[in-house]
Structures are given as C-alpha cells and as structure tokens.
C-alpha cells in the first residue's frame, strides 16, 4: 500500500480547491484499488466537495468534518481540506455509509452496512475497519464501537466522532457526493496489510477524588460509594451551577479502570457530558460500568506531548519488527480536549510533535475528534479490545 496526503486552503471556492488537490496528486500513480479520505472544516459544503472530487477521481471517497485537521504536507490547519489517497494492488477497500442513525435503528443499521461492505471486498478478509460517525447525545459512544466489534467478530476498529466548532450541529460525514449529519461512514480494508494501532493518554490523577462506581447504567453514573455523582463532584470543589459545565471538565477528565469479561484490566479516559442535579447523576460521553474505579484526572501540554511520543514510538517499534512488510501510511485521531490545552498561538505544537517523530517515509493525515475509536491490547494476555475513548491520541499505521 502507498499513499499521499495533500491539502488546500480553498474550502470556499471548491473549483479552485479540487483543482489544487488534483495538481498535487498529478504525479502519484494509482494501483488497482484506491481510496480517498477527506478531513475538512465543518463549514465545507461536503456534498459539493464530494461531487467535484468524484468527478476527478474514480474511487470511493469518504471523510468527515473536523474542528481542526493536519497533514504531513500542511501541519496543523484550523481551516481547509485534507485529501489522503491510499492505493494498492494487493489490498481492497470497501467503503459505505449508514442511513441516519437513531436510538431505534443504530444497531441494525451499523450491522447492515458492515455486512454489505464485507461482501463488497471481493473475497478479501477484512483486516481493519476505519470509521467516522456523527455523535448522537442519546447513544453512548461505546455503542458505535461495540456494534461493529460484535458484527465483525473483533476486527480492529479505528476512527472517531467528527467535530465542529463546539456548536455540535454542523458535524458531517461524507461518502462520495452524499453528506449525513447523523450517520456513520466506514471502510473495510482487506488483503496484504498489517495494521499497527496505538492509543495513548497521559494524565495525572487527583488523590482526593478516587471512588468506586456503585450504581450505573450505560453512560449514566448515579452513585460513587454512598454518594451521588453530584455530591462527589461538589465535594471535590466543582461549581455545578455554571452555564459552561462541559468546558469546565475539558481539562479535568476521569480515568476509569474496569475488568473486561475476559479478565483483562481496561483503562480509558471519560469526559463528563452533563449532570442531572435532580437525580444526582453524571452523564458521561462513554460507558462507565458498575464496579469501575474512577479517578479525577488532570493533563497539561506536557502530558499531551508525552502521549504523542509514546504512541508513535511504540508504533515505530512494532513497524520495525515487521521485516517483510513496508509501512507507508498513517492516520491520526486526537481529541479536541487535547487541542484546548493550547493557546491560539501554540496550537501547532502537538502537530509539530508528530512531524518530529513520524518517519519521513510515512505519509499521514488526521483530525481532532469528539471521541476516539481505538483498540486496547492487554499487556497481560495480548487480547484486543475495541474501545471508545476521550482525551486520547490514536494512531494507525498501514
């Protein structure tokens, strides 16, 4: 597999933008099968962009909106369009998009889309699923991952929720000339590929907030020990009457530790989405099971840089161990909460970190998300667990 990631600032004039992308790809030779992945500012006209790209490039093109994006060519970009083209003779790409997802249909619709794409691979066995979705406040983030995990039999799932400028109504996914504000787009990749996937976070826990979840359902936590979630947060000094509650917790996520059904210890970061002052419950962006250990965490710009280096360096070690396979491509998903630790003047710092440690032979692109999809590999057993994350840096090498 080979790839090239190109970029244009021309998101307002799509004729100019697509012409620029085409010119930058003019010397890139395509193999038998190809795929395009788009990350673009949320105000982009994705239907028109998809239509123009599809008229120039005769392969499936998928993508999503992003608060900010980056590529090897451009680095960090607040606005613009990233177009990453993957091509191979010995791999196959099957891309598709669900219908609008609701509480009632999301399980059946995600499974239907996966099964169709599996059949579209032409006999290749899928090795990885790369997927982006629009966050639905009524469906916990874990559910998008869990349904794919169940349908696929545990094939690694990588991607995340698309993002916008914290208005939460301009998020989009796209497939060719189709745009959806409530769907999920995915590609199954089969053939001669050996994906290396890493997810890392680096946080410091706060000693005086260390609790066990005693009552919870899905992503709603009712009690920590003998206190309600609200009582525990107030005891920790949080102002729960503030209008901007979600932003108060952007830099103060929660480290959640629990045991899987296989007996593996799983650690994930969870951001608080809202609270119910009447019931005392806390609603998280992802599931928090009963019996889980929950700790308040803090992270800084130094922590962000540390997790980037750890994930990429770990991936490079694994890549180096595959002597018979040449890795050429990477995609990054990083949480918007990580971006919020930087000021406007130094928002490029995280992407500078990528460029400093990713080998020049690997072409990459990526986006900032409202939640990350990335497997966790148990150090004790080697079991792979597809998981939903917050405040996490996720990296796939192909």
Question: What do you see in this structure?
Answer:
The protein is of the alpha+beta class and 398 residues long. The protein has 2 domains: 295 residues, no CATH class; 93 residues, no CATH class. Helix content is 24%, strand content 39%. It is built from 9 helices and 26 strands. Strands 14, 15, 16, 17, 18, 19, 20 and 21 form an 8-stranded antiparallel sheet that branches. Strands 1-6-2-3-10-11 form a 6-stranded mixed sheet, with helices on one face. A hairpin with a 4-residue loop joins strand 19 and strand 20. The termini are close together. The model has no long low-confidence stretch (mean pLDDT 90).
Topology, pairings included?
Layout: E1 2-8, H1 14-24, E2 33-41, H2 46-56, E3 61-66, E4 69-71, E5 75-77, E6 81-88, E7 91-97, H3 106-120, E8 126-133, H4 141-152, E9 157-161, E10 173-175, E11 178-180, E12 184-191, E13 196-200, E14 204-217, E15 220-224, E16 227-228, H5 229-235, H6 245-248, E17 254-259, E18 265-270, E19 272-276, E20 281-284, E21 293-298, H7 301-321, E22 329-335, H8 336-339, H9 349-357, E23 363-369, E24 372-377, E25 384-389, E26 393-397
Parallel strand pairs: 2-3, 8-9, 22-23
Antiparallel strand pairs: 1-6, 2-6, 3-10, 4-5, 4-23, 7-12, 8-12, 9-24, 10-11, 13-26, 14-15, 14-21, 15-16, 15-20, 17-18, 17-21, 19-20, 22-26, 24-25
